[in-house]
Amino acid sequence: MPTPCVRAPVVEGEETRQALAERGLLDGDREIDVEDGEIFVPVVDGDAARAAGYDVVEREAAEREGHTPPAEVLGFEPSYERLGDVVILDEDDPERARAIADAVVESDVPCGTVVNRASKVAGEYRVREWDVLHGTDTETVHREYGHEFRLDIAEVYFSPRLATERHRVVEQVAAGERVVDMFAGVGPFAVPMAARGAEVLACDVNPAAIRYLRENAERNGVADRVTALEGDVRETTAEYADWADRVVMNLPHSAEEFLDTAVRLAGDDCVLHLYDIQHEDDPFGPGERAIRAAAEPEGYEVEVLTRREVRSYAPHEVNVCLDVRIRRA
């Protein structure tokens, strides 16, 4: 019998599967298929997938033989996400977390390590503490839109949930652009931007992130187009004044504090991608006002290109992105 399937490029397969699983739309009882460079992911509700913006087609999808999902072991549908071969839980009850971890290991979910969040993101390096429930290795290789990123979740910050948003920004980059990634982490913006032909200056205060960033640039064949600088971007980029065609500012809660530096780095015509977390009543106003306050006194005209809500962050708070072009008058 035909089954509704989400169709996507095969390089986006794992991100698509994860996103559908997070929405509760993945049909884990049927096989995922690949044909002519496209992946077909079975879903339980085709209309809901279409409403979420996916391309849905009807096609035959074989039943998975011997498939044992975690829900079958537990008797309820658990919530988890995968980062490479690390399965990440977010459970307040340690006993429930342990039960889910055991079920994941017993199921067909491919994993080497299962962890539960033990703290919020904290500190200068924005890392979490983790309770390791199965396995020992918190280092993994994550694949995203055709690129590979090695990282250790105990040493660096990384969110697989932002894959679609990162891809949206990366797709705007043209060959020959000069890009500054002010808070680069292990390179999920910097590496694919360099793969599109940009020259990327990637900065981070976390020595572990810079180490992985350099490895990931090598791993993806773009080391010649990525310059990695360890340290505070306000202190390490003096020689890059008036250099950038594009600046990525993915440090919600704090990015506004770096706008003076972003403007200093900007060339005559530059696009800023400012990530922010604000109250739902005025999610974009504070960021827009801060950009104008930093750019206009330096002789720039400010044009807001995109106002985008990326995801819900907390009750009544949203993670947003402002794409803004600044041009010298």
Strand content: 25-35%
The assembly state of the depicted protein chains is single chain
Helix content: 25-40%
Gyration radius (Cα, Å) is: 21 Å
Ends distance: 62 Å
Low confidence ranges: none
Q: Quick summary of this structure?
A:
The chain has 329 residues and is an alpha/beta fold. It has ten helices and 17 strands. The chain is globular and about 65 Å long.
Structural description of this entry:
This protein is an alpha/beta fold. It has ten helices and 17 strands. The strands form four sheets. Strands 13-12-11-14-15-17-16 form a seven-stranded mixed sheet. A four-stranded antiparallel sheet has the order 2-3-1-4. Strand 5 and strand 6 form a beta hairpin.
Sum up the structure in keywords:
329 residues, alpha/beta, seven-stranded mixed beta sheet, 17 strands, 34% strand
Summarize the topology.
Layout lengths: L1 E8 L3 H10 L10 E3 L2 E5 L3 H6 L4 E5 L9 H5 L6 E3 L2 E4 L4 H13 L6 E5 L12 E5 L4 E6 L2 E6 L10 H8 L7 E4 L8 H6 L3 E6 L2 H13 L6 E5 L2 H4 L7 E6 L9 H7 E14 L5 H11 L4 E15 L2 E12 L1
